[in-house]
Structure formats: C-alpha cells, structure tokens
Amino acid sequence: MTSNEWDEFAAEWDGNTATSAYADHAFAELAQVVDLAGLRVFDFGCGTGLLAERLSPHVSKVVALDGSSKMIEQLKLKALPNVFPIAGFLTASLMRRNTLLQTKFDLVTASSVCAFLPDYGAILQTLRSLLRSGGTYVQWDWLASEESTETGFTKRRVRRAMAAAGFINIALTQPFTIEKFGDDTQVLMAVGQIP
What we know:
By secondary structure, the protein is of the alpha/beta class. It is built from eight helices and seven strands. It has a single domain, classed as Vaccinia Virus protein VP39 (Rossmann fold, 3-Layer(aba) Sandwich).
C-alpha cells in the first residue's frame, strides 16, 4: 500500500474499534516488558499516533514517523505535548536533515507496519541504527503461518531478520488476537535489544 492509499483511511482510523484495540493491547504488552519511565521513543509507522498517544504520559519524548501525511495530520490534531510527528519515509536523507532523528533512542516501536514494507531486513538495520547501546526494539505484526504471506510474518522470519540485524535477547510471543475480517487473527510481538 502506498502512502496515498493509507491517506484514505486517516480520518476514520481512530474510530475503528480494531485499530484502537490493537493499540491498547500493544501498549499493555509493551508496559510489561519495558520500563517506560523517562524513555526517548521512536514510533515508526505511527499512523494517527494511537500507540504514541498511549506512550505519551509515561515517557519523556515520542518522535512519531509515518509515510502518510494524512495520518500525521490526524496525530497533530491531538496536540500531545511530548509527541513530535514527522511525515515522511525513513531514509538516510531524512535522518541527516531532521534533528529529531539525530539523537539515539531508548526504545523503537513498530506497530503493524513492517509486514507492509518492501525490505524488512534493511529497515531493521536502519531502526537498529537509531537505538542507543542497550536500547530496545519492539514490533507487532500479524502472525503468518507460511513465509509467502504478504500481510504478516512467521516467527522464523522475524527471528532470523532480527538476528541478522544484530539484535540480541530476541523474544517472540503471540500476546493477543484481533478480529480481522470476521476472524480472530494472532498478533506476533518481537522484542530485541542491541548490545
């Protein structure tokens, strides 16, 4: 899906019970594995900021990036004082130009975004480069039963890609399900750290 396709969903995104439930569950699971107090967070593929909104009261700063300018417009309307939205794609050029991306983060989150990207391994390398030493990466995506699925990941694929990107202490769980097109769909949560 291109950014323009995601733009079409922006105005109604927060009103969707499944997207709100996903963010609620993701935040609850995150709070169990990471002490959020005072952290500097990069929320990659933030959409309208549903996860950033939940993180905001618990962390020092959230830099929230999404390729959809309309999603970012919705996040800006929330006027969260410690959330700094960026509309754009995570490229080396953007990372050089935007001062918000030039200080390392304690935590990088990627909620239901990585399975939609063309080069998962490359984006993991880029996200890893944004973390400080000892920092944590947390990802949620649909759990796939086979490698060829376009909208999710197998545990094997995620573990292999995270290890190749240099993450350690990798933990994979299936912490919750979300109703998607009338079926309960498992969500895969991946947690890794950098040395």
